UniProtKB/TrEMBL annotation:
SUPFAM superfamilies: Nucleotide-diphospho-sugar transferases, Trimeric LpxA-like enzymes
Gene (name only): glgC
Family membership noted in the UniProt record: Belongs to the bacterial/plant glucose-1-phosphate adenylyltransferase family.
Keywords: ATP-binding, Carbohydrate metabolism, Glycogen biosynthesis, Glycogen metabolism, Nucleotide-binding, Nucleotidyltransferase, Transferase
Chain ranges of the Glucose-1-phosphate adenylyltransferase/Bifunctional protein GlmU-like C-terminal hexapeptide domain: 307-410
Enzyme Commission identifier(s): 2.7.7.27
Annotated GO biological process: glycogen biosynthetic process
All copies of domain Nucleotidyl transferase, residue ranges: 16-284
Quaternary structure, from the entry: Homotetramer.
Organism: Rhizobium setariae
Residue sites binding alpha-D-glucose 1-phosphate per the record: 107, 172, 187-188, 205
Protein name per UniProt: Glucose-1-phosphate adenylyltransferase
Lineage summary: Bacteria, Pseudomonadati, Pseudomonadota, Alphaproteobacteria, Hyphomicrobiales
Role according to the record: Involved in the biosynthesis of ADP-glucose, a building block required for the elongation reactions to produce glycogen. Catalyzes the reaction between ATP and alpha-D-glucose 1-phosphate (G1P) to produce pyrophosphate and ADP-Glc.
Length: 419
């Protein structure tokens, strides 16, 4: 008989990704798509990181709950994540809010998004459930978190970041004892509790939870019958377990996947225009904090069939060049100068134009003589010839979405109003 203690626990787990949120702080970037479907890193979407972590960890049963403006997300999942095979005991379920419990009820919270699909989860018969947020950038081996969950005998294990204590005021914060058992869970505290032995740091929730499936289903059913519940993991289920059961913190640094040159545990919530721009631009560093080139932990995605990137013209003032930049397939840089910039698939940058610290989503066209600095350009935008952005703050703020730190978000609707 095989000793189950030496088998990967991920084989008996199901990953359930909560991907229904809008992400309103990304402003116009989420007008047409949910936050998990927003493009990131030149080729991928934000949700690809949680899904890739699950796949690379050995999990072969995955569900994705969608709700807000889900078409772009669902199309991406269908195109890029359709390789799971039922005959190998694999599954990939896309679970839009479809009023399965009531004809008037959509997903009312993160817990309800799981509760409404219990009848889909149960036939897969997973022993463990790994509940994931679909809107963060990080690399993590969930097998290590599963192992801690089993070894500790916890009812729930919660993925946690170690952050400076007073930076934890925007998170759900774990108050733990010296064995990382959670004795209190406080949502967005004004005075976060420190970590025993390291009081200047706090443990902030990553929105990652591991449960035994039977325990979770019983818990969801109890919560669904509570008229006072908001149907949310962080607000309702986790505080209930902390009070009535055993909740244990899992520190991200213990399961973060790092390539040789990655010195720090990397996790980002790219939930604002500034944070989104910064995380993308950081990838242009000579040695970025996040290594997308690590073949041992690939970030899977939908890979379009495209021709190579192309650079043309070689004369003074009209030289197709890119420095410290990420250029995707089917891009043509025609006599333009590009610095610290990401061009997603299918971009065209025409002669005498300049891009500096720019994030250009797929199929952007930059016409002749444009100068753009510190910008995020939405998909398919046609930048007019001679447009200048990033040199006159007052003018930028009147025409585009300009953040306090000076990053401009440009959409086609904004360009159309220029006249």
């Amino acid at each position: 008989m095989i000793d189950k203690r030496v088998q990967p626990l991920a084989r008996d787990a199901m990953a359930y990704v909560l991907a229904g949120g809008r992400g309103s702080r990304l402003k116009e970037l989420t007008d047409r798509r949910a936050k998990p479907a927003v493009y990131f890193g030149g080729k991928t979407r934000i949700i690809d990181f949680a899904l890739s972590n699950a796949l690379n960890s050995g999990i072969r049963r995955i569900g994705v709950a969608t709700q807000y403006k889900a078409h772009s997300l669902i199309r991406h999942l269908q195109r890029g994540w359709d390789f799971f095979r039922p005959e190998r005991n694999e599954s990939f379920d896309i679970l839009p809010a479809s009023q399965r419990v009531s004809e008037t009820q959509w997903y009312e919270g993160t817990a309800d998004a799981v509760y409404q699909n219990i009848d889909i989860i149960e036939p897969h018969n997973p022993e463990y459930m790994v509940i994931l947020a679909g809107d963060h950038i990080y690399k993590m081996d969930y097998e290590l978190m599963l192992r801690q969950h089993v070894d500790s005998g916890a009812d729930v294990t919660i993925g946690c970041l170690e952050v400076p204590r007073m930076e934890a005021t925007g998170f759900g914060v774990m108050h733990v004892d010296n064995k990382d058992v959670i004795i209190d869970f406080i949502e967005k505290p004004a005075d976060p509790p420190g970590i025993p032995g390291n009081e200047d740091m706090a443990l902030a929730s990553m929105g990652i939870y591991v449960f035994h499936t039977k325990f979770l289903i019983d818990l969801l059913k109890r919560d669904a019958n509570d008229p006072n519940s908001s149907r949310d993991f962080g607000k309702d289920l986790i505080p209930y377990i902390v009070k009535n059961g055993k909740a244990v913190a899992h520190r991200f640094a213990e399961s973060c996947v790092r390539a040789e040159l990655e010195k720090q545990a990397y996790w980002r919530d790219v939930g604002t225009v500034d944070a989104y721009w910064q995380a993308n631009i950081d990838l242009t560093d000579v040695v970025p904090e996040l290594d997308l080139y690590d073949s041992n932990w690939p970030i899977w995605t939908y890979s379009e069939i495209t021709p190579p990137a192309k650079f043309v013209h070689d004369m003074e003032g009209r030289r197709g060049s890119a420095v410290s930049s990420l250029i995707s397939g089917n891009c043509i840089v025609s006599g333009a100068s590009i610095n610290r910039t990401l061009l997603f698939t299918g971009c065209r940058v025409n002669s005498y134009s300049q891009l500096d610290h720019a994030v250009a989503l797929p199929e952007v066209i930059v016409n002749r003589g444009a100068r753009l600095k510190n910008v995020v350009i939405d998909r398919g935008v046609n930048i007019p010839a001679g447009l200048v952005v990033g040199e006159d703050p007052e003018s930028d703020a009147k025409r585009f979405r300009r953040t306090e730190s000076g990053i401009c978000l440009i959409t086609q609707a904004m360009v159309d109003k220029l006249g």
